Amino acid sequence: MTEKTIIMDGTNLILGRICSIIAKKLLNGEKITLINAENIVISGNKKMVLKDYIRRTQIKTRTAPWRGPFQPRRPDKLVKRTVRGMLPRNNDRGFKALKNLKVIIGEPNEFKDKERENLSSLFPKIGLNKISGKFITIGELSKEIGWNPAI
Q1: HEC letters along the chain
Q2: What is the CATH number of the domain that holds 23?
């Protein structure tokens, strides 16, 4: 029995809103592949968002800083970490749900001709058109906090 994988395009979608929808679908047992993770946006003033994420990456323990906590810097890992925060990962159900999520930077050739689920029409409040002010993309944020896209 092969399960169908839902392919979602993250371009111009708001991070928290798309991740909450993905978390609900994962808990229902669906498999999801999210492409173009670097084009997802975070609403808010760019300086304030950067300040918050830089502060998070600098948190360490005094006695053994190599023990963490560790914060992701890559766009795909950052989105997956956000979804993880919305799942009950301390039990089997949440752990299995997170395994069904695949987040990809860019758009690989294998997904160019496949059908995608259009979330902007299903949920009108998750798109970029609902942001009246400032925003920053995950790609820009990742470059500012130390991600090197060339590697």
Answers
A1: CCCCEEEEECCCEEHHHHHHHHHHHHHCCCEEEEECHHHCEEECCHHHHHHHHHHHHCCCCCCCHHHCCCCCCCHHHHHHHHHHCCCCCCCHHHHHHHHCEEECCCCCHHHCCCCCECHHHHCHHHEHHHCCCCEEEHHHHHHHCCCCCCC
A2: 3.90.1180.10
